[in-house]
Each structure stands twice: as structure tokens, then as C-alpha cells.
Amino acid sequence: EAQLVESGGGLVQPGGSLRLSCVASEFTFNAYPMNWVRQAPGKGLEWVSYIGSSSSPIYYADSVKGRFTISRDNDKNTLYLQMNSLRAEDTAVYYCARMYSSSRLKIFDPWGQGAQVTVSS
Amino acid sequence: EIVMTQSPVTLSVSPGERVTLSCRASQSVSSNLAWYQQKPGQAPRLLIYGASTRATGIPARFSGSGSGTEFTLTISRLQSEDFAVYYCQQYSNWPPLTFGGGTKVEIK
Asked: How far is B17 from chain A (nearest CA, A)?
């Protein structure tokens, strides 16, 4: 069964940086696009970023464009999210999610357990 | 950006009841719609894609319908493990991929 495990979350001051990692196992990582989706406390789901199976194309939500960078290392089966210039409104649980992608499908399955990111002074 | 609106926000039901959740898109998404279930403290889980196709391992009591801008998730007979928050997601026009605000199904 496919598995995703995030790490790297924590408490950071406004304006600071943090890098999340997501290690994939039990599936062919380099065959799938990957995504980050976040959930602020008590709120719904917000898509953050997408990266193609070979690191292209890359897309971002407007709310993080220019501050966050998604990347992947297919040799290490690992997805990353570099978060810079963090703001209080970036406080959320960050999930990595494999994407089933075809011309007609863009769905998330499975999801990791999530990494808590708290931006506060 | 396509805005997804779910209703109601909260639904109070008894085990064994039939439940209907609604999701509306701000413009047509054809059948490019998925449903996810999220239990407290857990990651979301894919239930339905293509508006009506159950994901692997999802019980038959879950069904999806609709196309265009109006969609429905039905749970035929609610079981205790079904109390959760349900989200719809469109993948017709992206980026961005967008979710509805969620419907919480709670015990009456």
C-alpha cells in the first residue's frame, strides 16, 4: 500500500523559513505528480502546489507564489516544500498527496499524515 | 478560479439514516469532481471521483451523482464510522485545484 510520511514541521517566527519533506514508499514515486495541500486550524482544505513526475510543470496557489518552492528528488523518493517569508496565515497542517493524473483525472490519493507548521512570534 | 460551495455546513443525523450532501460549482466542471472524507486528526481519504465512481475499497453505501454545477454525495445508511467532514474538489479547470468548504456530519 502506498505510503507518504511528512517531516520538517515546527514553530517558526514570521518572516522565517522552513523546509518540509515527504518520503514516499510502496509505489513508483517517479511515475506520479505530487502535491502539497494545507489545512489551517479549524478550516477546510487548500491546494498549495503541484509538481509533475519529472519536476515539470510546477504550479502554485496565488497565496504562496514567490515565497514557496516545491521540488522533488526521484532518486530519494522524496518531495519537498521550501517555505520562505512565512506569515501567520501560513499556519496549517501541510499534507503531501500523490496525484492520480490523466487527461481527465486530477485527484489526490493517498495523503500523508500531515506536518504541523506554526508561524508565530 | 472555480469556487466550490458545499451545503449544509453541518448535518446532524442518527445512525442508519440516509444522508445527502450537496456541492455546487461556480461554473461547469462537467464530471470532474471528487469527494473526500476526513475524520478528526486524520488525513483526507478519497471516496469518489468522476462525480460517481467509488475509489478502491469504498463501501457501496457511498454514492455520488451530478454533473455540470450541481453534485450530491449520498450515504445510504449512515454507520458510526461515517461521522466525519466531507469535501468536494473540482479538477476541471486548474490551476488552482479547489475544494469546497466541507460538510460536517455529526451524531444527532
From this structure: 25
